[in-house]
Amino acid sequence: AQRVTQPEKLLSVFKGAPVELKCNYSYSGSPELFWYVQYSRQRLQLLLRHISRESIKGFTADLNKGETSFHLKKPFAQEEDSAMYYCASRVTDRGSTLGRLYFGRGTQLTVWP
Amino acid sequence: EAQVTQNPRYLITVTGKKLTVTCSQNMNHEYMSWYRQDPGLGLRQIYYSMNVEVTDKGDVPEGYKVSRKEKRNFPLILESPSPNQTSLYFCATSATSGYEQYFGPGTRLTVT
Questions:
Q1: What are the angstrom distances between the C-alpha of B8 and each of B24, B71, B75, B87?
Q2: How many other CB atoms sit within 10 Å of the CB of residue A81?
Q3: What pLDDT band is residue A2 in, cutting at 50, 70 and 90?
């Protein structure tokens, strides 16, 4: 079964420092990968998808198939980036259960002033 | 305005008393899904629906039922709730399963 691992439960950085939230997936096929974010007292919302290759709020994430990783990065963290971040994956191969979405356990990012 | 609504938002109930949490969307989305969020475990998918009358199990379906009789609604049913179903529940919808999911506000359920 496909699994998503976020090894850091908590991550703290100072404002202006680079930040990297790690995500590894276990599936060797062709997954779609996402990062979702949940700000305090707000709904979960999509931050970015690997296939769109966008930069949202200064965050980027590159799919590394060799390392089966999809780490989220930002060169200069801001206080407003403090939130819970979830990595998620979906299998896309023919014959697979396309509706299944797997989330990691989340990383709580705190950016100190 | 695009909306995903859940009701109730908060519920305290007793073991064994059947309950239903409703989820409704006005975006004409085909895909709907239920998750539970528990500390340290992240989000786990309970059930999902690719379209009307099509539902399938997620990671943790035991103790839950769903139905998808119409596109806009996807209720989550707990026939005989138990304390281990105390959790924060989220409904989510998307145009199809591969697109951005829009999450509801969550329902905090406590089973005593």
A1: 12, 20, 11, 13
A2: 20
A3: low
